[in-house]
Amino acid sequence: MIPPSFSYRAPATVSEALALLNESDGEAKVLAGGHSLLPMMKFRFAEPALLIDIGRIPELKGIRQVGNRIHIGAMTTENELLESALLKEKCPLLPEVVRWIADPQVRNRGTIGGDIAHGDPANDHPATMRALEAEFVLKSADGERVVAADDFYLGTYYTLLEANELLTEIRVPVLPPGTGYAYKKLKRKTGDFAIAAACVVLSLTGDKCERIAITLTNVGPTPLRAETAEKLLTGKAIDDQLVEQAAQLAMEICDPAEDLRGDKEYKIHMAGEMTRRAIREAIDRARGRK
Amino acid sequence: MPEVIEKDTLIGKRITKLDAPEKAGGKTRYIHDLNVPGQLYGKILRSSRVHALIKKIDTSKARALPGVHAVITAADVPYQRPIGVAKDHLPLKTDRVRSLRDEIAAVAAETPEIAEAALKLIEVEYEDLPVLTDPREALKPGAPLIHPEPHGADGKPEHLKPGMPVAYAGKPDNIAMTFDYGQGDVAQGERESDVVLEHTFRLHYVTHCCMGVSGIIAEFDPSGNLLMYSNTQVPFLHKREFAEILDMDPARIRIIQPPIGGGFGSKLDIYPFEPITVFLAKATRRPVKLVFTREEEFLASPTRQPVILTLRSGCRKDGTLTFRTVETLHDNGAYTSWGATTPFVMMQTISSLYRVSHCKYHTKAVYTNNPYAGSFRGYGNLQATFAVESHMDMLAEAIGMDPLEFRLKNAQDPGEVTPQGMHFKSCGFKDCLTTAARASDYSAKRRRYQAEQARPGRFKRGIGMASMLHVGGGAKIYPSDGCGTILKMDDFGAVTLLTGASEIGQGSETVLAQLVCEELGVPLSAVRVINNDTEITPWDVGVHASRTTFIAGNSAIGAARKARAKILAAAAGVAQMAPEELDLRAGHIVEARTGKMVMSLPKLLRQLHFNDKAELVMTSFYYEPPSKHQDKQFKGDVSAAYAWATQVVEVEVDTDTGIVRLLKVTGAHDVGRVLNRLGIEGQIEGGIVMGQGYALTEELMVENGVVKNPAFRDYKLVTAPEIPEMEVHFIETMDGEGPQGAKGVGEAPAICIAAATANAICNATGVRIFELPFTPEKVYRALHAARKEAA
């Protein structure tokens, strides 16, 4: 398939990109790594009049620590996340998630910003960002706002991002020592999207779970946060029975679309299984066992 | 160069494929890379309805688009003839469409973009017809008929000229083909049985996924000769078919094959895009290039034959097989290609892989509105082997016998002539069984994993085996099964081998060069293989049925031996020795007994070239391998040799998610003899991975006639991380008719994996699955259904 014709611009700075976005009156699409957008254009699901390639804007790249947060430029590629010594030390969940995304070729071009801003619940970063309570910097010609990942996802391919806004930066917390984390993703084979995946970030005080975030990939119109399961576990010493109850509560909020990866029932069961595994592994990590 | 040259051989060595440097270096010019001056770009408009009458086609807007040179529909090519195996298929559809891939119109334009834009301007009015997509419904009274009307030419008999092929007549029912085979008396076999089992197996759609998508360039010269750059696997047969379709003299058709980016059987038939491109070239008097998009490749190239197969079989308590009854239903799709004829191969596995006195086989291939199935590596054998080898394990279990012992008891021996008429002159089947079993520690592991089924734990391991029988010495399905060779030598000792056999990535040109080197004592670098131009190369029936090494190899050896005899006779004259006292080694004539150098080969050749009796161009044909056509009862010895293999698969099943991982595949293949060790290892490893995809991840999802996953995003091929450890053993039975003892191996390695994996999953979990592929969801459901039943 050949996409319909479109104009193409490759601005050198964020402000140029924002000016183009502002002028285009919603007819433009921002091109990051292109792994989602270009297939959509080929299949005519997206027919932008203008493609704004933000791949040549140096200020959109890079990973740096600012206080107790790590700021990641939106155009940082997945492989750059994977290879970042800073992330490995301060927020190891992120490189762990990246390992599960697609394949090395895709990770060479694919960017964290593109993965997040696309609004596809099948992508792996969105649920991770919710579990990390990350923040996103959205810029427009009018200024800048910082929004919580928790509030960002409104529906499938539908986010807080306005047509004239650009996601420029992702801010994730430095995980304090003793934080337990895990991302468990079930896929048919390497390179595939998740049948279901679960992300857990938790901290323990003694045996008790002080705080926990449980989020799910590809089992609803947006990345889901299993708040009832989180509430159940918070303040308790997590045993097998609680893990099972939490998994059941997580399954209750799932509403996956039936597709080639399975029907609703199977996907919900797998979301439960991934939740069990993620909680167990996160606890093991918090206890320094893994 | 030393004074004495020891005898050396390339046979069995690890030889890098001749085309490896250019392929690995990205320098190969596939059809996609070829462009002809003045060329236009073709695109095809396909149906947007699964089954409908075409009421009206309006191409006026498309014709008016600047840059468009031609827009054609069936009305513009009244001379078109039905194509395909049953000639039930017009390239451009006239009154109705029968599947979503159906071709309605085609455009030739200055650029692919203009051609694509023009397609959008073609308006088609349809009247929907009832849709038939379940083959089981096809036989029911009142089912929609897929080919009710005669069609062909413009559908009007008076327009058919005498001597032209008759147009397709239409059918009163949806049965495209039936096959019946029998040996012995299955009722008697059943009476003699202590155990009888019956199960239904369901085999799905997969497609070849060649890295190079379909494509063609067609052009006419001013004298009306047609030149096609084509990816076909069967150039000489296609010349003839194109001549019929186009009402042309076959001698005016030339096919040049650029390097082919994968065949696997997909390029064995003529598909509508090929004649359509020729029509466009004719209409525009310009070369026209048409290359599929990947999406189009998924939608409009053939699939493996989907099958519903019911197998009933029995054995005695002592492990003797008694009978087999097979009923299969083949979903032909809307038209008939080679997929419909896969029963030829299926029945061989059913009747003759093991000794079984009483057999009955019946197939109906029915028309539906689904994509149509073509030939695909293994040709029905993956499907038949899946059922037969699943049942072998189940029968063994029912009588409490070790599955290996059970197979050994019924396995064929050398010298056997089966009731179907196949004569197994060389047969390493039992060696394959015992070698694969020993190397994989099959029996001990099987018992251990079975004992561990009941233990708690998420992961279960299992081991399973399956074996296969396939033609390995050509297959006599056409009037001849031959291949021609022309061999010429220049005065510097270089050899040019012109062979009819096509290279489709399988490594045939390397093996043919090796065989020539063996006869002529020249280094591999001295041999060039020319194999891609019907104007230059001698005749051949094409790449299919694992035949090229065997047939083209024997043909090449024949030509090389003629050259050898001529050279040695001339050398004997110069050296004043008898020809038998001489040998050819490392580009020299040597004394055979001592290896002492007599003279250099190039020097002798130069002398011969200045001599009017030289004639250093040899021809050889290997037209008739010792094989026989099947009779009307499907009995006959269709191949000069048969290949055997056993593969053992070890799996790990995650019982909580249904994910099945292949840990190791151990194969033992009776290949006659290893010619190129590197090549054959690659062929077998590639085949195992293709079988793995069939078993686990690949499925072309067709719902109500619509392909739901026409992209690699959702059609999942196996990639490096899932590929298991592979250990391959070669059983060298030195076939008497094979070139240097070799037999064909092209299809063999893909055949057993699905069956062996089914047996391994059952060994791991106790659960038998009768339907492919083993997706996580399917395995999970089977395990949980079994758990519920147990509870």
Give your account of this protein's structure:
The complex is a heterodimer of chains A (290) and B (791). With 290 residues, chain A is an alpha+beta fold. Chain A has three domains: 7-51, Uridine Diphospho-n-acetylenolpyruvylglucosamine Reductase, domain 2, CATH 3.30.43; 60-173, 2-Layer Sandwich (Uridine Diphospho-n-acetylenolpyruvylglucosamine Reductase, domain 3), CATH 3.30.465; 180-284, CO dehydrogenase flavoprotein, C-terminal domain (Enolase-like, domain 1, 2-Layer Sandwich), CATH 3.30.390.50. Chain A is 35% helix and 26% strand. Chain A has helices at residues 14-24, 37-42, 78-82, 85-90, 93-98, 104-109, 112-117, 125-132, 149-152, 227-233, 240-252, 264-286; strands at residues 7-9, 28-31, 50-53, 63-66, 69-73, 135-140, 143-148, 153-155, 158-159, 166-173, 180-186, 196-205, 208-217, 224-225. A five-stranded antiparallel β-sheet of chain A has the order 4-5-10-6-7. A four-stranded antiparallel β-sheet of chain A has the order 11-12-13-14. A three-stranded parallel β-sheet of chain A has the order 1-3-2, covered by helices on one side. In chain A, a hairpin with a 2-residue loop joins strand 12 and strand 13. The longest helix of chain A is centred in the C-terminal third of the chain and has 23 residues, at 264-286. Chain A is globular and about 55 Å long. Chain B is an alpha+beta fold. Chain B has a domain at 20-27 and 482-623: Aldehyde Oxidoreductase, domain 4. In chain B, 28% of the residues lie in helices and 23% in strands. Chain B has a seven-stranded mixed β-sheet, sandwiched between helices. The longest helix of chain B has 28 residues, at 548-575. The radius of gyration of chain B is 28 Å and the shape is globular. Chain B starts with 19 loop residues before the first helix and ends with a helix. Mean pLDDT of chain B is 94; it is low at 160-166. Chains A and B meet through helix 12 of A and helix 3 and helix 20 of B.
